[in-house]
Design goal:
Length: about 250
């Protein structure tokens, strides 16, 4: 039996009331499978962040639905406060800014994500230390965020997102503040996490330089899915797709 996708977004519409109605998303559907690294591209204002907010159960859609692990969890008017557990256990978030707690060192920042989930401090710190080692940050484990470079801080943020081993990771422009070498390192890290842990990972990115590391990209314009590519090697965007046309490689 084939497993359901880790994430399914079906016909997502999101309208914001901003003087007039802003159609931030206008009927977007896609699926993300275990072990898959998906890029979400598109110009500024095309709806990429809105799509991640909806997929991450931080905003309900105006129409459409979201499925996590095959289970319908969000729809118009859904009680997202009641989904805190689903978010905490099943979704790891990485944002453009690492947002580390300044008075906690790298290990403590990562361990906190586990302690919130009732893991005792000792095991939480040991697990955090192991993750930091795996991300090449063993020598920075005791450093406060202010002593870390931008790339190191972002890797700590990735470790935090991985701490409770979520099957789904959503990242909104995690490389925007990094130079191209460090940006590529972060995407390469996601590639490894998708391959080794089987997480499904969706990354909003403007940066075409690491596209070869993705399995697939989708492109948004004015809140609509306008393109998709498979097997990036020679990136060819097929334009004019309708909803649901975008399938897994
Ligand atoms: N809370 C909000 N209230 C009103 N309008 C919003 C809100 N959030 C987003 N929008 C609008 O929805 C549209 C899509 O915004 P979104 O942030 O999703 O785009 P984006 O593709 O992520 O842009 P960028 O690449 O600049 O971050 C834009 O027109 C934006 O101004």
């Amino acid at each position: 039996m084939t497993r359901p996708p880790v994430l399914g977004v079906d016909g997502a519409v999101k309208h914001y009331d901003g003087g007039g109605v802003v159609r931030a998303l206008d009927g977007v559907s896609f699926e993300l499978h275990a072990g898959e690294l998906l890029g979400i591209m598109g110009p500024s204002g095309s709806g990429k962040s809105t799509l991640l907010l909806i997929a991450g159960l931080l905003e309900p859609p105006t129409a459409g639905e979201v499925r996590i692990g095959g289970q319908r969890v969000s729809w118009p008017g859904a009680d997202l406060d009641g989904l805190r557990e689903v978010r905490r256990r099943r979704i790891g978030f990485v944002f453009q800014k690492p947002n580390l707690i300044p008075f906690l060192n790298a290990t403590e920042n990562v361990a906190l994500a586990l302690e919130i989930d009732d893991v005792p401090p000792g095991p939480a710190r040991r697990h955090a230390g192991g993750l930091l080692r795996a991300l090449g940050l063993a020598h920075r484990a005791s450093s406060l965020p202010a002593r870390l470079s931008g790339g190191e801080q972002q890797r700590v943020a990735v470790a935090r997102a991985l701490a409770n081993d979520p099957p789904l990771i959503l990242a909104d422009e995690p490389t925007a503040a990094l130079d191209s070498v460090r940006g590529r390192q972060v995407i390469a890290l996601f590639r490894r996490i998708a391959d080794e842990r089987g997480a499904g990972i969706a990354v909003v990115t403007h940066d075409p330089r690491a596209l070869d590391l993705f399995d697939r990209t989708i492109e948004l314009s004015d809140g609509k899915l306008v393109g998709a590519s498979t097997g990036i090697g020679g990136l060819v965007l097929q334009r004019g797709l309708s909803e649901g046309d975008v399938e897994r490689r």
